[in-house]
Amino acid sequence: MTNSPLVVSAQYLSEHLDDPQIVIVDCRFALSDPKLGHQQYLLSHIPGAHYLDLNQDLSAPVGRHGGRHPLPDANHLAQKLAGIGVDFQQTLVVAYDDSRFAFAARLWWLLRYLGHNNVALLDGGWTAWQSQAYPVTDVLPTPQQGHFVPQLRSNWVVNIDAVKALKDLPEVALVDSRESDRYLGKQEPIDPIAGHIPGAINYPWQEVTNPQGFVLPNLEQQQRWADIESKTEVIVYCGSGVTACVNLFSLELAGIHAGKLYAGSWSDWCSYLQ
């Protein structure tokens, strides 16, 4: 199952809507309106798709430190995945959103973090599905019971202490995934302090796809990371550990398997600066 595709097309998914070995997950979400994604899902979604919410399902409750979207409890998430019919290391999970992978990539990364490699992102997302006139529905899927016992890859995550210890080593790259204005501290729409972690280099997550949300070819992903492909460890962060997963997805497409997530990201880092 390790050879499952990282990306599937709308055409591929349309031809496999009835495949019992595929579970589709709608990850649409809006940071500015946390209920919007679920409301959109209830109105219209890909037939058979289940909904997982960034705040409720793909994150743990927020504390003083740890960032705005702490990683969810592995067993809780495993129960939710089993509850939508995912069988560990067997079911192909196809995740989509309408935000250029911003939220679907979080689920993609979380599944792999739990030891389930068989997960792909829908190329172009919900927008591509709709624009190609594939079927949509407001019918909620019947719950299916899967079996999911996670095998956590705990070394895929680093905390603030590890970032401090590793970030200046020559063999380590620290990647800030936010848009350049936030990286440069010119603006900060969410967190209380602007700027970036000292030593970080900027690879905005939006560069992984084109403006329509289609993933750029693997060769372009490789060229994008050419300056750091020799590093033995790549620590990736963003504002809260969500869009950083788009860059981790890009690294995987480029054949670079050294990526780790600083889950707390800038929102955790700057919580110690106040």
From TrEMBL:
The keyword Iron-sulfur does not apply. Keywords: Repeat, Transferase. The keyword Repeat applies. InterPro entries: Rhodanese-like_dom, Rhodanese-like_dom_sf, Thiosulphate_STrfase_CS, TST/MPST-like. GO terms for molecular function: thiosulfate-cyanide sulfurtransferase activity. Residues 18-138, 168-271 form the Rhodanese domain. Pfam families: Rhodanese. It comes from the Bacteria. SMART domains: RHOD. PANTHER family: SULFURTRANSFERASE (PTHR11364:SF27), THIOSULFATE SULFERTANSFERASE (PTHR11364). This is Sulfurtransferase.
